[in-house]
Amino acid sequence: MIRSRALSAPARRLLAALADSSGGWRHGYDLCREAGLKSGTLYPLLIRLEAQGHLEAEWRDAEEPGRPPRHVYRLTASGMRLAAANPVRDALAPERRPAERPA
Amino acid sequence: MISPIRITFALAGRLAPPSLRPWVAAAAREAEVISDGGRKLRFAVGCLCWAAREAAIARVRNSIEENTMPGLASGLTRRATGVACALAATGLGVVYMGSAGAPPGYPILNAAAAAFGLVGLAALGLAERRGHLAAGPFALALGLTILAVSLWGVEANGVRRWANLGGLVVQPSLVATPLMLALFTKARDGLSTLGLVIAAAAVAIQPDRGVAGPLAAALIALTVLRPGRRELTALAAAALAFAVTLIRPDASPAVPYVDGVLQTAFDAGWVAGTAVIAGSALLVVPAVLGRRTDPAATAFGVMWAGLLAAAALANHPTPLVGYGGSAVVGYLLSLIAFPGGAPAHARKGSAAPTQGGTPPDASALFAIRIRLGG
């Protein structure tokens, strides 16, 4: 379960990518690229966000004729609040930087 | 010739627990739009690893449940467990009524209600399995029914919450509200939300704080576990309805063997008292057995615990162990909240996508699965 006080860095990046689209629908592969996530990380996060009501997911027809429908995602209002409360941290924030050892 | 990508997703679809398969299908569709072959393969392999991980977790969970809950591991679904609890509670209610000297027709009516409820639950389950359970429209129709009863139903002591069905007086809100809550947890759409809002307004009109309070409590629990706009809307309506029922007078007198059962059962002897307490405790067992973060199970448990609390605090019907078929039918129908087709461990992981469920055309995934499966 994702909790606002303990969101992982991938979850924060995903939320940021979804929030950046300003309520627009996003595709899974686009989110992978923008958030820098592997597919095996992306989908569990999407599933948890959807189960907790932070994400809407639905099938949409492709824009190009003849292409199959694709699953699209966007944040709900609570998801937007969650994203706002959990901004992306620096890659190596001071509190998470590994301690330097003497050579 | 089948491409490696399709084979990878076919394997992922086969490995993944059933609740995750629509998501695997969604990932397979995404892979189709990736033009770079290497990226496409990495994407597919990542999904395969995820499916394998989820399969392993489901297997471990299955093993743990088999070792800790042998009664459930023998294939009983949580819905079946709920049915067993309902029948046992109804039976304990018959014991109470027999010990307390209730008219002979009372236990017979409760038993008949249990039979009716079982048939209704079976019909709902069948409709669900065949994909014909239109949860949203059904919930809306139920809400309108409760509203109609509030406006034109049977009135007694300034309260209008009953319907006369050919001489049989029932309380539709007690039948329909727990079921509507279950449908809402499944559908999460505008119609089921509207149905709950209408039902909340109806119980405020009646007034019936014995239903409005538990409904509000259940929606609080649901909103905490699964926050969303629709949950908040339904919660606001239920909370407002409960506030209205607190203000409006409800001077319904206690009806023997219906109201005040929890307070007076031991007066009829320890057998009657024990039957009532044990039967009441059984009502929340299906919810307690579930994952604590399962929104549907939690809402179910809070709703029925709330109805029991209302019965303990004021003159409201004591569900299942007291005389009254409406609660018996309502309890059985609301068990549709639980999965009936597979054991709980088979649904491990996150909820299946409610709005993005089955792909419009899953042939890309499942056609290969058939070939691989021989």
List the helices and strands and how they pair.
The complex is a heterodimer of chains A (103) and B (374).
Chain A: H1 9-20, E1 26-27, H2 28-35, H3 39-51, E2 55-60, E3 70-75, H4 77-85
Antiparallel strand pairs in A: 1-3, 2-3
Helix pairs in contact in A: 1-2, 1-4
Chain B: H1 4-15, H2 21-32, H3 37-68, H4 70-73, H5 78-100, H6 105-129, H7 135-152, E1 154-156, E2 159-165, E3 168-170, H8 172-187, H9 190-205, H10 209-225, H11 229-247, H12 261-264, H13 270-282, H14 285-288, H15 295-313, H16 325-334, H17 363-373
Antiparallel strand pairs in B: 1-2, 2-3
- Greatest interface by residues involved: A-B, 33 and 37 residues
Question: Using only CA atoms, what is the Rg of chain B?
Answer: 23 Å
Main sheet of chain B, how many strands, which sense, barrel? Answer: 3 strands, antiparallel
Please name the CATH topology of chain A: Arc Repressor Mutant, subunit A
The separation of the N and C termini of chain A measures 41 Å
The largest sheet of chain A is: 3 strands, antiparallel
Tell me the distance between the termini of chain B. Answer: 16 Å
Return the domain count of chain A. 1
CATH class categorisation of chain A = Mainly Alpha
Side by side, the strands of the main sheet of chain B go 1-2-3
Instruction: State the helix count of chain B.
Output: 17
Question: Oligomeric state of the chains?
Answer: heterodimer
Summarize the amount of helix of chain A as a percent range: 40-55%
Query: What is the name of the CATH architecture of chain A?
Result: Orthogonal Bundle
How do the helices and strands follow one another from N- to C-terminus of chain A? HEHHEEH
Low-confidence stretches of chain B: 69-75, 342-357, 361-374
Estimated share of beta-strand residues of chain B: under 5%
Strand content of chain A: 5-15%
What's the shape of chain A? globular
Number of DSSP-assigned strands of chain A? 3
Radius of gyration of chain A: 16 Å
